[in-house]
Design a protein that fits this description.
Blueprint: E1 2-6, H1 9-26, H2 31-34, E2 43-50, E3 56-68, E4 71-79, H3 88-102, E5 107-113, H4 117-122, E6 126-134, E7 137-145
Parallel strand pairs: 4-5
Antiparallel strand pairs: 1-2, 2-3, 3-4, 5-7, 6-7
Length: 147
């Protein structure tokens, strides 16, 4: 398995493929809100499963934006159901946090689905505020200092 920052059309298509499967097909998120105006200014990451022939199949995705100076927003973290509980999400977050630190970001924020909040707590994120609904799914706001 390898997590890479993707900067080309194929990499972006791979990220979208994972998100389509997880968010749109599995969770019923409307495509109109899954793909938004932030795709071009976000940094995208894709986790690839390597085969015996060396080819990679996309199995996870995430994106990072900087909506305000020094603050990154983690978004669209997704792992295919067949690959969950194998550390893929942690690897995606490690790559994303490393990139954020290299870019000088001081804090990361995210909106976690409530069922995934424990995963993010295990990575050092803390909840702030009350539960809310986003895309028809219960979420909580979380943040982590990178300093």
């Amino acid at each position: 398995m390898a997590v890479v920052r993707v900067d080309d059309e194929q990499g972006l298509e791979d990220a979208f493929s994972v998100r389509q499967t997880v968010f749109v097909e599995e969770q019923g998120v409307d495509e109109e809100i899954e793909y938004d105006e932030h795709e071009d200014d976000a940094v995208h990451f894709v986790a690839y499963e390597r085969t015996d022939t060396g080819e990679g199949h996309p199995i996870g995705a995430a994106r990072l934006r900087e909506p305000e100076d020094g603050v990154g927003k983690v978004e669209r973290v997704a792992v295919l159901e067949s690959h969950r509980e194998n550390g893929i999400g942690r690897e995606l977050m490690d790559a994303l946090e490393t990139e954020a630190g290299s870019d000088g970001l001081e804090t990361l924020k995210l909106h976690a689905q409530t069922r995934a909040a424990g995963f993010y707590r295990g990575l050092g994120y803390e909840q702030y505020g009350e539960e809310f609904e986003e895309a028809g799914i219960p979420h909580v706001a979380m943040k982590k200092s990178l300093e």
